[in-house]
Amino acid sequence: TYSVATLWHEANVAQTAPVPQFLSPLGCSYLERIFNTPIFIGTTGPGPMVTLQLIPRMFLSTLFRQLQGLQVHPRAVHLEGSAAAACLIPEQRLPFNDLDFVFYLEGEDSTVLHVMREALVRSITESLDPALVASTPDVAGLVQQFISKLFLKDEPGPQGDLWALCSLQGCGGSPGLDIKSIVRCRRMYQFSVDSVYADVLAVALGAPSLIQPVLIGTHYGSIGEVREHLQHRLIAMHTSEDPANVFGGGLLKYANLVAQGYRLAPHMDVFVLEHTMCARFCTDFPPNEVSRFSKMLTQVHAVNNFLRTHFPPDTVSSAGLLFMSTLHTILLRACPHDRCHKLVDVLEKGFSQPGLYA
Fold first, then answer.
1. Is residue 213 reached through a cis peptide bond, with omega within 30 degrees of 0 on the bond before it?
2. CA 302 distance to own-chain centroid
3. Phi-psi region of 71 (alpha: psi -120 to 50; beta: other; left: phi over 0)
């Protein structure tokens, strides 16, 4: 026998529990195409560029096999971000710069992330052309040149973030490849439009084709709301103060979205949003601090990295200049002059500035 209160509670739970969502047949076809289309990764070190061709399906399967050989068993593998969003509404042919694969791992400390890095290095090595390997005296050094970014976030405490990112930069207009390994991460996205994910564990396990249906979801909350934001090109967070919880404030991503013609969702306050973004950006990238990765100021280094990954030098166009102009405008209206004037000066000089995009 159930009380009225119990039945009411269970009815409410049933109504509010998320209903699994799946890619449409067209979305599955689009995802299949992504997995089977070769991408081209270029070295980032000194000397002539060496190009590595990867088929995402094969590389993902190779990486998963390497992980299993090292006794690491991911609990989930997702395609996330813009590429996943493109699969959600394939009819709009949304652009994406990278394939963002996320491996969800179990672990108590960063040990599993270092194992993941070793698996990545092995997978890249295995993917090299045998003739290139035979003619290269330092194969390990060559593999490192294909890795454009390595980042480890290891915050203290059981609730602190614990994740790592490895980026391989695309060349010749090809998408790049980002592999993110997560044990713990408090926030998985910046804006609703980059919060989409597709479950691709079956592909990682070596399935010759997609096993339908493919689960699609969003870290933002409502997949229907995110679909609407994508269709109408809307910039949304839950509140206008949310950038305070995002590394870098989401400022560079925001400027790029605005440059592409996205506009704020009705519930967003542009004044609060942009001022919060700039405050967090200047906190994470202090205005007078020099980056330990280069001789640039940290703010300039951050913008330079964004330019490299979103507007590669071999495919640079007016889009990169429009992004810089948009960022410049946002900084002038929302960031205190003494906290960004050096970056503003560099942006005004554009691509001719030796320290930027060089």
1. yes
2. 15
3. left
